[in-house]
Amino acid sequence: MDSAGQDINLNSPNKGLLSDSMTDVPVDTAVAAQAPAVEGLTETEAEELRAELAKVEEEIVTLRQVLAAKERHCGELKRKLGLSTLEGLKQNLSRSWHDMQVSNAYKKTQETLSQAGQKTSAALSTMGSAISRKLGDMRNSATFKSFEDRVGTIKSKVVGGRENGGDNLPSPMGSGDRPLPDHIPF
């Protein structure tokens, strides 16, 4: 059997075996020049290593074929059980999320963000207190008191005219009152 007719059936007892005519094929000098023997190895040792390398590479190919067959079989079983790709994706994401949550990096990040949130909350609370205190100080200032008095006066004139039964606002030129200026400074 030549290499073109080599049996690659994984269940074949002749899998990967070369015919007797192939065993005594001389090594091409160009191929030998491409892969020189490592210093300190005899030609026999180098030939044994090449043979072992070929065997390992062949095993790798076989394992890849077996893995592909197992993956196909696994897919068929999942399909028969009604497990969809989406379900598998959900499980993978759920598992990944759980793994991330138990990781040290996630825990440290969560702790840092928690501390930052607490500090931000404290800063905003302090700022709110300061604004409240400043508004209280401003309300107690002379300027604000003057403004409050003027608004109170205007309010009493507006509300006072209605309380006395008059639906009309008092005239600025009314009975003996001094006229209100067009522009009242605050």
Task: Describe the structure concisely.
This protein has helices at residues 29-34, 43-81, 85-101, 104-139, 142-163. By secondary structure, the chain is mostly helical.
The shape, in one word, is elongated
How does the major sheet shape up? none
Please indicate the percent range of residues in DSSP E strands (runs of 2 or more): under 5%
Number of helices: 5
Q: How are helices and strands ordered from N to C?
A: HHHHH
Average pLDDT works out at 76
Count of β-strands: 0
Rg over CA atoms: 47 Å
Describe the structure.
- By secondary structure, the chain is mostly helical.
- Helices cover 65% and strands 0% of the residues.
- It has helices spanning 29-34, 43-81, 85-101, 104-139, 142-163.
- The longest helix is centred in the middle third of the chain and has 39 residues, at 43-81.
